[in-house]
């Protein structure tokens, strides 16, 4: 019997339950996957809490890596035995096996382990579209501000940004996290709990500000992020760990220097097949070649899902968190 984490009402981590489940056979356009590792992402807490709309009872998790064990009718491009990873709906990645659509799947090069894939498919592909697509004017030589630089996405984004020729100013909460961010290539560190982020950014950029801010924190950092931008800079709202971004004051955006704000969604940057292939080739190419190191800071079993979510929400994690199945 397979195992899966489910929840029957939205709420805190305690609503998560590990259960025996019947998986069944894949239907048209579907595959059955046996997981080896599963991603544990902050976005999962949004589904569990109800911040992202869901209809319980349901599974949880959108990122996993494993082996295809059965194919449904009409599935092309994949075969039983293929090593794959994915990020995308429907929920249900927190499981030992599952049936899901074939559309979100990516074939894994042999040089990428299942744990690396589970720790970096969502995070790495997110960092890729942020840095390559979310601000089309970004270019080598620009200076960016990256919040949560020692987080699961942050450590990957730092490395990719350096490969793209960018100067990275990263914010962190502790010396331990600063050490991790520096090790991955972060050029400058700001301790956001004890320093004025915008003032430090101005000091580090000769008063000009940065071309782009990547803000995955949200409510608590929004004002400082805006004030860190140079004229006509772009604030990319990547996440809302501290709460939703406040309503946008268009007049304030003008006063700040005719700056821009965008709140991109993964699905909108991977919907077009050609764009999806381009971004995936860039990310998995770097990963397969060993140019990017995946920092797995926490490994859990599925039975530890409550603890994993508590650690995420308390900010106790460094790098990526995964479930080893």
From TrEMBL:
<dbReference type="InterPro" id="IPR013149">
    <property type="entry name" value="ADH-like_C"/>
</dbReference>
<dbReference type="InterPro" id="IPR011032">
    <property type="entry name" value="GroES-like_sf"/>
</dbReference>
<dbReference type="InterPro" id="IPR036291">
    <property type="entry name" value="NAD(P)-bd_dom_sf"/>
</dbReference>
<feature type="domain" description="Enoyl reductase (ER)">
    <location>
        <begin position="11"/>
        <end position="323"/>
    </location>
</feature>
<dbReference type="Pfam" id="PF08240">
    <property type="entry name" value="ADH_N"/>
</dbReference>
<keyword id="KW-0521">NADP</keyword>
<keyword id="KW-0560">Oxidoreductase</keyword>
<protein>
    <submittedName>
        <fullName>Quinone oxidoreductase</fullName>
    </submittedName>
</protein>
<dbReference type="InterPro" id="IPR013154">
    <property type="entry name" value="ADH-like_N"/>
</dbReference>
<dbReference type="InterPro" id="IPR020843">
    <property type="entry name" value="ER"/>
</dbReference>
<dbReference type="Pfam" id="PF00107">
    <property type="entry name" value="ADH_zinc_N"/>
</dbReference>
<dbReference type="InterPro" id="IPR047618">
    <property type="entry name" value="QOR-like"/>
</dbReference>
């Amino acid at each position: 019997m397979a195992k899966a984490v489910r929840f029957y009402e939205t709420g805190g981590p305690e609503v998560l339950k590990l259960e025996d489940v019947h998986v069944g056979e894949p239907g048209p356009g579907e595959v059955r996957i046996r997981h080896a590792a599963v991603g544990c992402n902050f976005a999962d807490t949004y589904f569990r809490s109800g911040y992202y709309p869901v209809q319980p009872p349901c599974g949880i998790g959108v990122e996993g890596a494993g082996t295809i064990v059965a194919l449904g009718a009409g599935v092309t491009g994949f075969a039983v035995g293929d090593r794959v990873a994915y990020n995308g709906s429907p929920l249900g990645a927190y499981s030992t096996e599952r049936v899901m659509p074939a559309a979100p799947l990516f074939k894994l090069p042999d040089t990428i382990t299942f744990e690396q894939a589970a720790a970096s498919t969502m995070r790495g592909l997110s960092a890729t579209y942020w840095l390559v697509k979310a601000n089309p004017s970004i270019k080598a030589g620009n200076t960016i501000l990256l919040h949560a630089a020692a987080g699961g996405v942050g450590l990957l984004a730092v490395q990719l940004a350096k490969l793209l020729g960018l100067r990275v100013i990263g914010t962190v909460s502790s010396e331990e996290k600063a050490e991790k961010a520096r090790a991955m290539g972060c050029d400058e560190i700001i301790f956001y709990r004890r320093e004025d982020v915008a003032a430090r950014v101005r000091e580090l950029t000769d008063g000009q500000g940065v071309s782009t801010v990547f803000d995955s924190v949200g409510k608590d950092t929004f004002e400082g992020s805006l004030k860190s931008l140079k004229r006509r800079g772009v604030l990319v709202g990547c996440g809302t760990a501290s709460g939703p971004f406040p309503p946008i004051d268009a007049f304030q955006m003008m006063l700040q220097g005719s700056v821009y704000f965008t709140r991109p969604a993964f699905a909108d940057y991977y919907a077009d097949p050609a764009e999806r292939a381009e971004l995936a080739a860039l990310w998995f190419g770097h990963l397969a070649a060993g140019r990017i190191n995946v920092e797995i800071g926490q490994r859990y079993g599925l039975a530890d899902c409550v603890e994993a979510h508590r650690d995420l929400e308390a900010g106790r994690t460094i790098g990526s968190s995964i479930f080893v199945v």
